[in-house]
Structure formats: C-alpha cells, structure tokens
Amino acid sequence: MGKDVIIACDFSTKAETLDFLDSFGGKKPFVKIGMELFYAEGAPIVREIKSRGHKIFLDLKLHDIPNTVKKSMKVLSGFDVDMCNLHAGGTIEMMKAALEGLTRSDGTRPLLIAVTQLTSTSEERMKSDLLIDKPIKEVVMHYAKCAKHSGLDGVVCSPLEATEVHSVCGKEFLTVTPGVRFAGDSKGDQARVTTPEKAKELGSDYIVVGRSITAAADPVAAYEKAINDFVG
Length: 232
Ligand code: C5P
Hints:
Elements: E1 4-8, H1 14-22, E2 30-34, H2 35-41, H3 43-51, E3 56-62, H4 66-77, E4 83-87, H5 91-102, E5 111-115, H6 123-130, H7 136-149, E6 154-156, H8 159-169, E7 174-177, H9 196-201, E8 206-209, H10 211-214, H11 219-230
Parallel strand pairs: 1-2, 1-8, 2-3, 3-4, 4-5, 5-6, 6-7, 7-8
Helix pairs in contact: 4-5, 7-8
The protein binds cytidine-5'-monophosphate.
Cytidine-5'-monophosphate (C5P) binds near residues 10, 118, 178, 209 and 210.
C-alpha cells in the first residue's frame, strides 16, 4: 500500500457514518473505525463499510495478556480489515502473540501497527504517572524498535517523529500519523499538529485526519485537498 489519507470516522452511530460516506459518491476513502463507533455498532458496521469497498484501519489499540490479545486478533483478522493496532507497552511477547493470532491459515494478514506513547501523554505525565524516567522521544523510538523486532509493520506516531522512526527502523517501517490540520483550522484537543504538506515532507506514510475533514463545511473537498497536499 502506498501513501494515503485515512479519514477518522469518529461518529457514534451507523446512520451518521454511512450518511457521511454516502456523500463521497463513488469515491472510497480509506477509513478509520475507532472504539466509539465499534463499541456502538460492533462487527456489522465493519463488514458494511468493507462491503462498500473501503479500506479499513480498525483502531482498537489492544493491550492485554498475550494469550487474550492473540485470540482477539484472530477474531479481528476474520473481519478482513486492512490495518489494526495494539499498544507497544504490552511488551514484545504480546506483540508477537498478536501477530500470530492475526495471521490467517493462508499466511495473509492485515497490517499491524503499534501505538508507542499516546500523543496525549506528556513527558511530565510519563515520568510522574508511569515512572518512566527517560526523554519521551527516546521512549517512542525504543517502543518503535521493539515493534519492529516483534515483526510488526509500523507505528502510530506524531508526524514530527516520522523522520526519526524511519531512520531508526528503516524506510519500509510504516508511520501512521494523526495530529494533522489544514493551516488555519482549529487544533481542538491536539497539542502538536502539522499540515498534510508538512507530514509529506517529514515522510509520513499515512495521515489520519478526523475533524479537519469530518467537521469541514464540505468534507469531500477537504478530503480531496488532503489527498492533493499529501499524496500529490
Ligand atoms: O479529529 P482529529 O484529526 O484530531 O482525529 C485524530 C484521530 O486520530 C482520532 O480518531 C484520534 O483518536 C486518533 N489518534 C490520535 N493520536 C494518537 C492515536 C490516535 O489523535 N496518538
């Protein structure tokens, strides 16, 4: 898969989500289904969106004991999504188990990427709440290396970390980056944001864009602008 824009469909109902996707007509953007929509609508919404021809990133961020994650990933691989994820903080053993669970009997599987430290976690909080006494950048790069060592395909990270992740883990290791806004858009609750052009320059492989598209006056035009600016 090449560079692409993934739309974060952070809606809480099937009706809202499908109305939104219908507005794209024949275009089939890559969509991210997160916990909110998945917990509200379950597997049927994943199957429905897939059957309409979209690629899907199922963003459920698994983090549990290796055996539970392995068995859960086996269930997710049956949904035929294109990408799913977990927390690298679950350890290498958990990541390896996840990969095993996700791999189908014919050897195929969705891409599996790891969350390193959430972009909402500050270095200060990481130190005080998690007792991790290292610079956050070092922690993110270490988690990325652990994900690579476990056989995963990439990480979710800030676009501002994409260049360094590639230099530490190689060009082929995917960087999937939220925190993207058009120049002039509101940041919302995101602290460090970049534009699609800047994310491209920094080497992001996929940008995840939510409100800059979903809350735009014309979401289809906003999506096309993101594609133009990021993919070219
Ligand atoms: O609306 P916005 O563009 O900020 O949406 C970003 C999406 O990416 C949301 O679905 C959010 O949950 C997700 N995300 C994030 N930062 C992470 C991981 C996921 O913003 N570190």
